[in-house]
Backbone:
């Protein structure tokens, strides 16, 4: 019994994550974590999860911080670190500590990655790591009369070189250091390096890991998703945000404006947080998206949650046929969606029929608040375009409530013989749906 349950859980979990694995393969993710993560006894687990992402074909750039390590070195040397306007002033003595601390953190990460996926059947798989002079920096200089010495800012990221290493299936590891064409070393913020790199690479995701922080609304609920404008409103608002959250939101907005599609803010302290965030629908962190205000596009695996939210009430009213989450995850590739300010407000799906020239239009839905403004029409048109492109000659639809809407758009009443065999077998007579079809030119 126990083992049956275990099998069930495994099967459910595997089916659930398979579409995400498929969607992420070949994508580029930039991950940044602080020096605190490296000191944590559970750091090998995070590295293990990162190695797993690598083995699934995700191209990874890791950026590490080294703040606690730097601070320890400074205090061991009796050196006081000075800050001005929240920024570290790196004098000559401090720079020595920064170089030593960043260097040893990097070595530690390289060593752990060299273990690859130890204690798993993939333990032999070797993971190549590349570090190097990918970041060019310039000094912050003198601001308001304060000389920041060796504290710098990113001037340029060598995207071509990083891409080359990623294409060679290597993980690229960046430290919070940059070099100038004059041969100087500058102390940088890891988040700035990660953000600039994600923008330069036009990465699919930037993941900002933090130490036990979550973005919450006024009622302490996790803010799971927000747009650039909402993120900016949080920054400008009256609510007190922690320094980390402030910085990470700022980086997220900058990355989104630089065309990085998705930025995740994630508490890395929860075991498996990274895997849950990337391979399950709900995730654990906050997702900031750069999507335009409203647009019609092909759905991706990241839209499953939004589509479910849209169609569940219609399923409950019996207007749409019920679809399980798992099914929707498997079939999301058939869907088109309209997204408005980060929310899915309409969707439609085109399923292949059994004949190559026939397809079924299904799950057409527009959110209540957005009806009668032509979105249904726009989706139908997009579905028809997609169908014609795929050589479809006949579109079939089953409906209980919307017969006239389809008739007014050129659909003719049909019968069960128009349905694909798969659908015939499932046809629920009690629903008493009507069949309509339309010939596509
Ligand atoms: C049908 C639906 C997708 C239309 O979306 P929409 O964006 O409002 O559609 P449009 O703006 O392109 O068209 C609006 C027109 O359709 C008409 N219309 C809307 N629902 C209708 C229905 N059930 N029957 C007949 N006409 C309908 C509206 O009255 C309007 O026409 P008008 O301007 O002449 O009054 C939307 O109403 C919906 O989501 N319904 C629930 C889900 C559903 O029934 N899906 C079909 C199952 S496959």
Residues:
């Amino acid at each position: 019994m126990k083992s049956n349950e275990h099998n069930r859980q495994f099967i459910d979990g595997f089916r659930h994550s398979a579409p995400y694995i498929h969607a992420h393969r070949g994508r580029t993710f930039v991950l940044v974590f602080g020096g605190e993560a490296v000191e944590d006894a559970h750091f090998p687990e995070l590295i293990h999860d990162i190695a797993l992402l690598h083995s699934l074909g995700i191209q990874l750039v890791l950026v590490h911080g080294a703040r606690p390590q730097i601070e320890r070195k400074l205090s061991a040397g009796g050196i006081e670190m000075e800050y001005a306007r929240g920024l570290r002033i790196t004098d000559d003595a401090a720079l020595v500590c920064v170089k030593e601390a960043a260097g040893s953190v990097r070595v530690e990460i390289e060593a752990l990655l060299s273990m690859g996926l130890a204690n798993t059947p993939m333990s032999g798989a070797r993971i190549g790591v590349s570090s190097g002079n990918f970041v060019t920096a310039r000094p912050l200089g003198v601001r308001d009369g304060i000389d920041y010495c060796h504290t710098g800012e990113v001037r340029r990221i060598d995207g071509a070189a990083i891409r080359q290493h990623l294409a060679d299936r290597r993980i690229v590891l960046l430290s919070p250091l940059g070099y100038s064409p004059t041969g100087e070393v500058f102390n940088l913020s890891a988040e700035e390096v990660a953000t600039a790199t994600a923008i330069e690479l036009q990465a699919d995701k930037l993941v900002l890991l933090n130490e036990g922080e979550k973005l919450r609304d006024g009622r302490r609920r996790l803010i799971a998703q927000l747009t650039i404008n909402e993120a900016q409103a949080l920054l400008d608002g009256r609510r007190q945000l922690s320094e980390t959250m402030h910085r990470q939101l700022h980086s997220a907005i900058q990355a989104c404006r630089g065309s990085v599609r998705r930025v995740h803010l994630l508490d890395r302290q929860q075991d498996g947080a990274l895997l849950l965030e990337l391979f399950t629908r709900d995730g654990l962190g906050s997702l900031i998206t750069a999507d335009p205000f409203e647009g019609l596009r092909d759905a991706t695996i990241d839209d499953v949650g939004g589509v479910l939210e849209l169609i569940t009430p219609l399923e409950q009213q019996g207007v749409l046929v019920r679809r399980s989450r798992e099914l929707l995850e498997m079939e999301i590739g058939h869907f088109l969606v309209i997204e408005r300010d980060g929310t899915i407000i309409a969707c439609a799906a085109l399923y292949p029929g059994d004949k190559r020239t026939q397809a079924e239009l299904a799950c057409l839905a527009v959110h209540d608040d957005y009806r009668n403004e032509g979105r249904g029409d726009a989706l139908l048109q997009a579905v028809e375009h997609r169908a014609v492109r795929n050589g479809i000659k006949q579109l079939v639809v089953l409906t209980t409530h919307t017969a006239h809407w389809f008739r007014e758009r050129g659909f003719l009443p049909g019968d069960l013989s128009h349905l694909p065999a798969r659908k015939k077998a499932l046809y629920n007579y009690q629903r008493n749906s009507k069949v309509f079809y339309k010939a596509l030119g």
About this structure: The chain is about 40% helix and 25% strand. The pocket of coenzyme A is lined by residues 314, 319-320, 364-366, 371-377, 397, 399, 401-402, 404-405 (CB under 6 Å).
